[in-house]
Design brief:
This protein is of the alpha+beta class and 170 residues long. The protein contains seven helices and seven strands. The chain has a three-stranded antiparallel β-sheet with strand order 4-6-5. It has a two-stranded antiparallel sheet with strand order 1-2. Strands 3-7 form a two-stranded antiparallel ribbon. The protein is globular and about 45 Å long.
Length: 170
């Protein structure tokens, strides 16, 4: 089924007809969730994966690193189908995670996928998924309360997850 445009006028797409019908049913986290980034870097490492970047994010990252876009693309980006992802180090770390300080070296211009952590569809499907994230991410479940509208604005969906009506696409 083709995604529909969000009626809010933002131009964002609703994931499916299923999502549209569930928009009137509040998600399990309707009272909000707490999060405060501790800068631990745990979300920047792990098994192989993808950090999707848009053309504008590539431009901002190249500018931040004072590199021509072509050089940035050659050293830091891989093509996956028709999409772009940041490269990883052999151990699974993001290329921009400093191996000594464990801090992001491009934090001010980090991609939207990174900015939206931990509010990813895969982390919010069930309370058990969120509880797991709270065990591995020291900032999840702590800090300021993010309201449902704030979470929905941040909610990140890679397009690879199954649409179960939790959120919306970028």
């Amino acid at each position: 089924m083709k995604p529909r445009r969000c009626p809010s006028g933002t131009g964002r797409k609703i994931l499916s007809e299923n999502t549209a019908s569930l928009m009137h049913k509040p998600p399990w986290f309707h009272q909000g969730l707490r999060f405060q980034c501790t800068g631990c870097g745990r979300c920047c490492t792990g098994g192989p994966g993808f950090v999707w970047v848009s053309g504008e994010e590539i431009r901002q990252l190249a500018l931040h690193l004072n590199l021509p876009k072509e050089d940035f693309l050659a050293h830091y980006v891989r093509t996956v189908g028709k999409r772009f992802s940041l490269v990883e180090r052999p151990n699974g770390d993001c290329i921009f995670l400093d191996p000594h300080t464990r801090r992001c070296t491009v934090y001010p211009v980090r991609p939207n996928q990174c900015r939206s952590w931990p509010f990813w569809l895969s982390n919010l499907r069930t309370p058990a998924d969120w509880e797991y994230i709270c065990r591995i991410c020291p900032g999840s479940g702590r800090g300021p309360l993010f309201t449902l509208p704030q979470i929905q604005e941040l909610l990140w969906w890679s397009g690879l997850e199954k649409d179960d009506g939790v959120g919306r696409s970028e």
